[in-house]
Design goal:
single chain; two-stranded antiparallel ribbon; globular; alpha/beta; seven-stranded mixed β-sheet
């Protein structure tokens, strides 16, 4: 049996309704997925492993020069309704068949192109073997205790969190998963779905490093923040 440190999984399926072929679309001259390929190379250590899970031959061709392990994702795990839990376990099963096990699994989604090395170092400090996950977040811009409303069956809207709060600064802080990092205990993900995990620590990132590209508006925002980062 071989025990390694981190398994970095880069999930990059072909389909995307919001922005077709976004993983290979050039962002400021570089295919989007390559931002994550380049990032993981900066934080990778000898006892770590990187795996690209994809059904996209173009992504696979981009990954080959990096020397990462590539696992071709089957069609049943490449649908719009395919869960990240299934993808993670599909990759883990491959390594388990080789009797290779990891301290933690780190999901690096290619739709989050703006990360700093310090982000991973800080995330790493928070991880412990007795928790389920450390996840990156940013403070939510809309607060359910103050601004967010839902609609009932009669068409009336009502406050999502019913507390008597009249000033935004009095609202409890709420956080949004920014999609950049998921550091998961392998034992936890084998027994539960990500959304069912309970022992979760957060690592807060600023808004300018929390862009998760889903559509053209996110793409334009990522370009803007990348330009600002290059100007510094």
């Amino acid at each position: 049996m071989q025990n390694l440190n981190y398994l970095f999984i880069i999930p990059a399926r072909k389909g995307s309704k919001g922005l077709p072929e976004k993983n290979i679309k050039p962002l400021k001259g570089l295919p989007l997925v390559c931002y994550t390929f380049n990032y993981v190379q900066k934080i990778l250590k000898a006892e770590d492993e990187v795996c690209v899970s994809s059904d996209d031959e173009k992504v696979i061709e981009l990954a080959k020069p990096y020397g990462f392990k590539i696992i071709k994702r089957p069609s049943n795990l490449s649908q719009d309704n395919s869960s990240m839990d299934e993808v993670i376990n599909h990759v883990l099963e491959d390594y388990c068949s080789l009797n290779i096990h990891f301290k933690a699994v780190v999901i690096l989604q290619p739709t989050s192109p703006i990360r700093n090395i310090i982000d991973f170092l800080n995330l790493n400090k928070l991880y412990k073997s007795n928790i389920d996950m450390v996840v990156s977040v940013c403070e939510a811009r809309e607060n359910p205790y103050y601004l967010l409303y839902e609609e009932n069956d009669e068409g009336y809207i009502y406050k999502s969190k019913d507390l008597q709060i009249y000033r935004r600064q009095d609202s409890p802080k709420v956080y949004c998963l920014n999609g950049s990092f998921f550091m998961i205990n392998p034992a936890s993900i084998k027994n539960s779905k990500i959304k069912e995990l309970k022992k979760i620590y957060k690592y807060e990132m600023p808004y300018e490093r929390s862009i998760d590209i889903d559509d053209h508006y996110d793409w334009d925002l990522a370009e803007f923040f990348l330009e600002k980062k290059l100007e510094k």
